[in-house]
Amino acid sequence: PAGPSVTELITKAVSASKERKGLSLAALKKALAAGGYDVEKNNSRIKLGLKSLVSKGTLVQTKGTGASGSFRLSKKPGEVKEKAPKKRAAAAKPKKPAAKKPASAAKKPKKAVTAKKSLKKVKKP
């Protein structure tokens, strides 16, 4: 298979689009098919290529998750890579202690609520 790699074709197609919010997966496949690329046969390669370009920081995913959604070229590849892990790490740390407190507090009212429900059911008939 001589010719440019899938990731190169994807970056060219995304850079050629003038969409403000990025090029969608469907539009990307149409652009690749118009360029003579067999989209049906290499569907998984396109998805893997998109994911790798997003993880490297070459592309930014404006909508969706994984390989679906919209993609556009990032302005600074290194900057995008640094921001994402910091947000995840900062968000993950507070969630753990906060999750433990409501879980123990939530268990106590649930018992009372179930008892109340059963009392209501008994009163109705």
UniProtKB/TrEMBL annotation:
Region (Disordered): 64-125
Presence of keyword DNA repair: no
Originating organism: Chaetura pelagica (Chimney swift)
Gene3D superfamilies named in the record: Winged helix-like DNA-binding domain superfamily/Winged helix DNA-binding domain
Record field: compositional bias (Basic residues): 84-99, 107-125
Family: Belongs to the histone H1/H5 family.
This protein's record includes keyword Nucleus: yes
CDD domains: H15
GO CC, alphabetical: nucleosome; nucleus
Name the UniProt record assigns to this protein: Histone H1.10
Function: Histones H1 are necessary for the condensation of nucleosome chains into higher-order structures.
Any one biological process term the GO annotation gives: chromosome condensation
Keywords: Chromosome, DNA-binding, Nucleus
GO molecular function: double-stranded DNA binding; nucleosomal DNA binding; structural constituent of chromatin
